[in-house]
Amino acid sequence: MIATATAGLSCRAQADISVSASVEPATTTVGEPVHLSVTINGSQRVAQVPNVPVEGAQTQHIGASTQMRLVNTSLSVSLTHTYLITPTRKGELTIPAVEINVEGKVYRTEPITVQVLDTKQDPAGGPAQPGPLAEVELPGRAIYVGESFPAEVRLLVPQGVPWRIEKMPEFETDAFTKTAFQQPQQSQQARNGQPYHFCSFRTVMTAIKSGKIPIGPLTFNIQIAAPKKPTNTPSPFGGIFNGFPFDTQPTALQERKVILEEKTVEVRELPTEGKPASFRGAIGRFRFSTSTGQTSVKAGEPLNITIQVEGEGNFNRIEAPPMLDTEGWRTYPPEATFAKSEETGFRGVKTFRIAIVPEKAHTKTPVFEFAAFDPDAGTYQTFKSATSDLVVEGLKPPEPERLAATEPPSKPAPKAEPKPEPVLQESLTPVAPAASFWKSRTAFWGLQAVLAAGLGAAAAAIALSRARARRGPGPGLLRQARALQNSLSSTENRSEFLRLATRVVQLRAAALSGQPEAAVDAAAAQLALSPGETVAQEIHWLFEADASARFAGTSSSGALKTEDRTRILALLDHLA
Fold first, then answer.
1. Bridge partner list, 220
2. Any idea which of 75-89, 462-476, 509-523 has the lowest mean pLDDT?
3. Cα separation, 220 vs 217, whole angstroms
4. Closest-CA residue to 305 (of 393, 386, 396, 394)
5. What CATH number is given for 471-575 in this structure?
6. Hey, where are the domains in the chain?
7. pLDDT in tens, 248-298
8. Which terminus of the chain is more solvent-facing, meaning fewer CB atoms within 10 Å of its CB: N or C?
9. Does domain 286-393 sit in CATH 2.60.40.10?
């Protein structure tokens, strides 16, 4: 059945131009497209492709065709635009009048009505033939803001029917972010006893706002085989090419939209009650572990901690767990990596590698705490890392707390019996008082001799140290320092520049103090070089910048800033 509407001109001068619109079939079901043809007879000069908005349906222009016909030496020309109109709801569907600008004049067709039945009904009145189906699988509970969850969209096409996907489906929502659909997983399944070719498309969605959120509608654009419709257009060659073997294909591919109806999902805010201070936004089901391969570390060197979070959830929002007690530890930004265990990235292992430097003697490794929200249980969970014994070489370990004495008090000693005082005999001869030893001449000159010997020994030690510096490795270390400082002019990499500049300071300090170069830290360099307060601060800044470049997880391989280069070179010139 074909519904047709035609509009002609009353003006005699343009009576050979007309427009018409037709739709086929006039009755369809939800999701089953109809073909709309808009034909212009007598001219091809159309200003633009006509726009056909239809309420309750999706419209797509699929092409235009031109036909020329010669009848009794008279040439007639027609231009036809074809559209696919796919209903999204049942009931009466009205295709409005189409406006067409032909050779500067506007022509209008009459509206056309199409009857849209439920998908379970057949336009011919009998039971509906199985057609393509669309399904979506979402969590059967409320979602939380920030939670990531897998969504699976399924397309089912009756077996034995040729088809192909023209366009991947898209969710029409602004309340979720999602990853790109993965390559479909294909299998054979049955629905109500009907075998279907099954395609599953998987993605991961993340809620970004709360409320009753609609998802969809979701549309698959596919090409599917349909019965080939006979044509009423006579062939210029008669019936020669109308039969076998030129018409052996019983079906032809046509474009089809398979529409999944809108779904509503409840999205809640995370609860504030019971939220731990260490919570950083992790939502899902996770396992937590830490490890370090070190039982001892030298003062100033990093202790490397590996933290792993394994499970399923919003890995893109998981941050490095905080350290509970940072006193006596210098921390650096972590290096994070993620290894997914399936294509969508919903499951996997996120690893953090953190370098921390002890600034005092510790006997245990630090404790890290990881907090996550379990959306199934609706509660927060916390995990704490286990500690292990640690020895920090080069720093004095803390003294153990002294316990109060628990021994019982000793018995008091027996009192001694008083002895009779001797009776002094009176003497009339005066006795001179004894002189103190420390006030004697002998003691005075002895002390002077000791002080002189001490001063002489100190002067000799200083002279010997300087002589050793001149004769020992000192001059060689200074030559190395000058060579490294000269090489900085051609160094552009930030991390390498900081390492070389720090070595220059270490070499100069080692040349004066006699310490090994590797043992010189910022404090040792300040003590050996005896700079002023401002230069001491610059030395501390240089050592800190070098440590951050070496131990931090962030990339430091970029170019050095001009102001940092100038600052460091000025420091090295001052120390030279």
1. 258
2. 462-476
3. 10
4. 386
5. 1.20.120
6. 3-117, 133-228+248-267, 286-393, 471-575
7. 444 567 777 787 777 889 999 999 999 999 999 999 999 999 999 899 998
8. N
9. yes
